[in-house]
Write the structure tokens for this entry.
Amino acid sequence: MTDQLDEALSREYEAGFVSDVESRTFDPGIDESVIRRISAMKEEPEWMLDWRLKAFEMWKTMPEPDWAHIDYADIDFQAISYYSAPKSMDDRPKSLDEVDPELLRTYEKLGIPLVEQQQLAGIAVDVVFDSVSVVTTFREKLKEKGVIFCPISDAIKEYPELVQKYLGTVVSQKDNFFAALNCAVFTDGSFVYIPKGTRCPMELSTYFRINELNTGQFERTLIIADEGSYVSYLEGCTAPQRDENQLHAAVVELVCLDNAEIKYSTVQNWYPGDENGVGGIYNFVTKRGICHDNAKISWTQVETGSAVTWKYPSCVLKGDNSVGEFYSVALTRGAQQADTGTKMIHLGKNTKSTIISKGISAGKSNNSYRGLVHMGKGSSGARNFTQCDSLLIGDKCGAHTFPYVESRNPTAIVEHEATTSKVSDDQMFLCQQRGLDPEKAVSMIVNGFCKEVFKELPMEFAVEAGKLLEISLEGSVG
Amino acid sequence: MSSWLAQAIDSAEKIEDWLSPKRAISLAKLKETPWPGRKTEAWKYTPINAIERAQLSEKTGTAAKASEIDNLNSIDLVFVDGLFSEEASTSELPEGLTISSLQHAQSWALESFNQTKPSKHFFGLVNDVLATQGCIIDVAANTTIEQPIRITNSFSEGAQAHTRAIVRIGESSKLTVIEQLEGDLASLNTFFAEYQISEKAHLEHYRLALQSGKALSVGGCHFNLNQASTLDSSLIGYGSQLSRVDMDVIHSAEHSNAKLNVIYLLDGKELFDLHSAIEHTKPNGVSEQNVRCIAADRANAIFNGRIHIHRDAQKILAQMNNRNLLMSPNAQINTKPELEIYADDVRCAHGATIAEIDEEAMFYLQSRGVSRSEAQIMLSFAFINELVDQMKNDAVAQWLRPMLRERFAQMEIR
């Protein structure tokens, strides 16, 4: 059985190829001129440049956070290139037919067909390749409904009043070290605006891919759901297999106005590095949403990739009766390290939050849940339920839980529970006794372990997530 | 650096005794540790600037003795303002028990000093370098000491006291120790106790941290569990301006078993902070921790409980249960039950809840003619009574019950 475990752990990263796309990449290093160049390249208005420079000033004074349960080599921020774009982007394609076929092939290899199948599935996709958004499908069709779905660099030019009003209101420039860096150098990302009372007619989705060597990806996503609207947004990501670590420091801001609902799902499959911890993506991500009255934000994440994950999708439940949800499956294997969780900040009356976190550690990996539930003074009648379960596969890995619970209001109710266990011999025995081989049995047990989270994912993603877990875990019987 | 700390370091440098080699290590460490503030993880919710502001002086032992516990029949070790009071203490000791002052050198005690208390505790380091008073307790092998040992600490206004207890329980022996801290006057004390529990030995431990009001109290108790040894510990805490207890339970051999029950009841502007760590370094250990807290008025209750299962410490059963009652809109509860696990074949769980007294239970009692205030006292008592019932020492439990009831009544009035 150990053989099977080894086999499972040494399984190769399927999205690890490099695409031969000609690119224009900045020389490594960061200073004011780099930020000016990025801003000029994007033809940004003056206020945007000022905003970036202000963030850069703040970033320079901030210390890199060291509180997370992760251990990684120091990042040399001067060795990273802060901008890389496929060359053929200089005259941006108007339609899919004009997109560099090499790019299209890249996405086909990843199983993200941008053409027909996607239309059948009815999902609008924004594709971000290295630093720029390559193509956004269904833009026109969405526009008919008043939905804006475009690269954020376009939004800055086309809808400056919306961007200016909301950018940085949820994750400010000085929020944290990596967010500040992102504010200064972000290159692209998605922008979504759902008008009042509109139910977005299709799922919106973004795929991120890091291709160039020694580049960092800093994308920024801003989603605004106006009063009474609804949107479901999916995010996926991959990167080539390289020996160097690459930095990914994204920021996602969600603004959920009165009675609106945002459902944000992520399947994160950045290159995790090899089993000895060489290479892989450093994933330092800040994601946060703000809920106004009766609004609801639901984060669902399946984290299987990245050498280091540092990610805490959060909800600020500012409005009365607002709801925050967090469903997470984090799988680490090899030498991966994940420190992930959520923050639920209850400020309004009768706010509710649910946290379901499932951590699976295998190999020599470390998997931590870190969360905060804060019941503010005004959170009368608020309610939180948290459940964190960890599953250990093998005796070289670690599973950790660091939940912070703070209550300032007696009528608020907080419940937190956490368990740690392994795939039990009894479960294995039962499955095998019914004729399942050990491989299938583990896969089934793990799937069952994650079921509460998977059922929150949109169908296409649930299938992808299930497959991802299977690839990583097949046969890994402890 | 804080001026208080500068002064402490200054006086520590003058201390010269048999513990000096150990003190020097701690002093070096203390000098390079920054003064804990809001950004220091272990002091995130617990401000300590009151120490800075406190008017402290050397005291000669004028404080009133700590209160008696009826029917306890204990061996008393009385410390007043951090000074050992020989006349108030018990001098006759049963066979197999040796107690000596911290001023008398003992080689095993030197070895044992700081063996269980980790150097991460800031005020532990302060105690290391400043504690010249205290006791060394040694129980021979195969001895059951029927009489509990009671170490009492009381303080007068402005006193500053640093005391230390080093305890060793021999193989297959049994001992009960009650640590009692009392007083509500503005004073500062650090009291740290270290326990070596040998093979198959058993320790029944109570820490009655009953200081209140303006008292500044930072201390700890640290246990090292050897092969098949057991620990049964109960901590009762009232809050004060600053009350902090650091607790470490180290399972350093197999088949050890630890049970930790904690109750703290806070009122007024009181603060109580418990940081506990349970370290399972070897397989087949069991630990169970129950923490119950009630915070009323403007109190601040802090709990940071950690269970750490080391690599290859398989077959561990560890449970932590933390329940909190928040009684007032101005009180706060901050809790963080942590798990850090590096072995796969273990069963670990923790749970934490925060809520107010169940309104339905209140309604039920009131519908039976019980007044609202009496109902609240009853339900508060019910919340913690389970843990009082589990105390093995009847005298302590008997003594506590009316006191706790009175405390609940006070909480209710506001």
Chain A touches chain B through 37 residues (CB under 8 Å). The mean pLDDT of chain A is 84. Chain A is about 25% helix and 35% strand.
